[in-house]
From TrEMBL:
<feature type="domain" description="UDP-glucose/GDP-mannose dehydrogenase C-terminal">
    <location>
        <begin position="332"/>
        <end position="450"/>
    </location>
</feature>
<dbReference type="GO" id="GO:0003979">
    <property type="term" value="F:UDP-glucose 6-dehydrogenase activity"/>
</dbReference>
<dbReference type="InterPro" id="IPR001732">
    <property type="entry name" value="UDP-Glc/GDP-Man_DH_N"/>
</dbReference>
<dbReference type="InterPro" id="IPR036220">
    <property type="entry name" value="UDP-Glc/GDP-Man_DH_C_sf"/>
</dbReference>
<keyword id="KW-0520">NAD</keyword>
<dbReference type="InterPro" id="IPR028356">
    <property type="entry name" value="UDPglc_DH_euk"/>
</dbReference>
<dbReference type="GO" id="GO:0006024">
    <property type="term" value="P:glycosaminoglycan biosynthetic process"/>
</dbReference>
<dbReference type="InterPro" id="IPR014027">
    <property type="entry name" value="UDP-Glc/GDP-Man_DH_C"/>
</dbReference>
<keyword id="KW-0560">Oxidoreductase</keyword>
<dbReference type="InterPro" id="IPR036291">
    <property type="entry name" value="NAD(P)-bd_dom_sf"/>
</dbReference>
<feature type="binding site">
    <location>
        <begin position="90"/>
        <end position="94"/>
    </location>
    <ligand>
        <name>NAD(+)</name>
    </ligand>
</feature>
<dbReference type="Pfam" id="PF00984">
    <property type="entry name" value="UDPG_MGDP_dh"/>
</dbReference>
<feature type="binding site">
    <location>
        <begin position="131"/>
        <end position="132"/>
    </location>
    <ligand>
        <name>NAD(+)</name>
    </ligand>
</feature>
<dbReference type="GO" id="GO:0051287">
    <property type="term" value="F:NAD binding"/>
</dbReference>
<feature type="binding site">
    <location>
        <position position="165"/>
    </location>
    <ligand>
        <name>NAD(+)</name>
    </ligand>
</feature>
<feature type="binding site">
    <location>
        <begin position="12"/>
        <end position="17"/>
    </location>
    <ligand>
        <name>NAD(+)</name>
    </ligand>
</feature>
<dbReference type="Pfam" id="PF03720">
    <property type="entry name" value="UDPG_MGDP_dh_C"/>
</dbReference>
Amino acid sequence: SDEWDVKICCIGAGYVGGPTMAVIAKKCPKVRVCVVDISQKQIDAWNSDKLPIYEPGLPEIVSDCVNKNLFFSTDVDGEIDKADIIFISVNTPTKTKGIGAGRAANIKNCELCARQIAKVANSSKIVVEKSTVPVRTAQAITRVLKSNDKGLDFQVLSNPEFLAEGTAISDLMAPDRVLIGGHQSPEGLAAAEKLVSVYANWVPRERILTTNLWSSELSKLVANAFLAQRVSSINSISALCEATGADVSEISRAVGMDDRIGKRFLQSSVGFGGSCFQKDILNLVYLCETFGLEECAAYWNQVVIMNDYQKKRFSQKMVAQMFNTVTGKKIALLGYAFKKDTGDVRETPSMFVLRDLLEEGARMHVYDPQVSREDMWIEMNYTCGVNHDNTPGLDESVITETDVYAACDGAHALAVLTEWDEFKTLDYERIFKSMAKPAFVFDGRNILDYAKLRDIGFEVHAIGKPD
Ligand code: NAD
Ligand code: UGA
């Protein structure tokens, strides 16, 4: 109805669409926001008490706004038609087949959204790329939108999202910056200004950057590549630390205190995971290759190679330390999410450790406070091709536990793979007593108190630390 300043429709009710739109609704009471999705299950979950994603602070905001100025619906066509601004926030996974398989991002879902908009719109729209896309995707989106023959005007903007899972709400409430790219024409600039005015409800103007379309699209890939590169850089040093007796945490501190380097994102780990870092770097690599920039492609590809090496190195070290065999041994994996404060398991490093140890014949007991067994198997099948059909006995060799002490009971080793706060304060005396001896701890996140654990009697191995 006309009581609204602006009507927004967001296509894609996932990790980005849901929280981003909830915060816009919360901060802009006069904006009507509707998030649509083709998945009925996903929309039903958003409209229920149990949201489809775990994100601290999100349930409060959703329950404040839902059915006031925030709506979740499967009426994609109806909501597209109503809206002034349409966000495309669908998944853009790495292609698994065809040209660029394993590297190029598939923008199929984005194109489908554009086609849908072109088909059902009866008024002019601003169409915003929120998904992470290859540079110049806006050109394709614009051409698809032009297939609408009703003489409407479509302005395409790029507005990449920089939130991190687990801190999505605080990231959205106080973003370092909001980036809006548009055509440098009067109509393009006017469209960008309209989106600026939505964010300006809570984001200081000087933090809202406007650029041309291609800079905006490419900045998103570059930001993720730089962040991931820091993790791979410190992880490469962790291997050198283990070989030399240096301590990677001391190195991170010493290096990071240089303001020019900065201290964030230098936490050495079992490797980075999540749905985006690898996907976006591979996207960048593929773009470089497409333009014949082989050296640039190889440079960025090395960030992914180093991450694969780090994950592999971890499971190999576990086996080597446990007398070169884990066959038949019970091993507890503490944490399965790709980082703390999320239930997301896409590309989680835990999965690769689990896969490797299963191949060695270990009996795996997995504990994570937020991950469902169903999601674990979906991702294991999607990313590693391991499923119940091609791997008989999975249900016997992988037990998911709801009690962390049960997971460790009788185990030869425990491995911390997600940095959940609760792992810092477990009763390690009790765990030690219940474990087989020697009792091994492998800390893939460097969060435990090693002096204390060694005192109790554990044999401790961490990333980039003296054994
Ligand atoms: P997601 O898989 O959680 O959600 C995507 C949703 O889009 C799904 O619910 C799916 O059903 C829906 N969808 C797909 N095609 C559709 C269509 N044609 N019509 C209607 N709905 C459709 O994905 P996500 O994690 O929210 O990521 C979305 C995009 O944002 C990606 O490009 C990603 O790279 C980017 N991104 C993600 C994060 C993050 O933290 N997850 C952060 C920044 C950017
Ligand atoms: C990341 C970026 O931080 C976001 O800005 C971006 O919007 C998002 O990707 C995206 O495009 O999807 P996210 O993947 O949710 O966010 O989480 P991060 O905090 O970046 O962590 C990514 C991975 O790196 C995790 O597995 C984490 O454990 C690991 N990591 C991070 C380290 O191993 N060490 C560090 O110092 C930091």
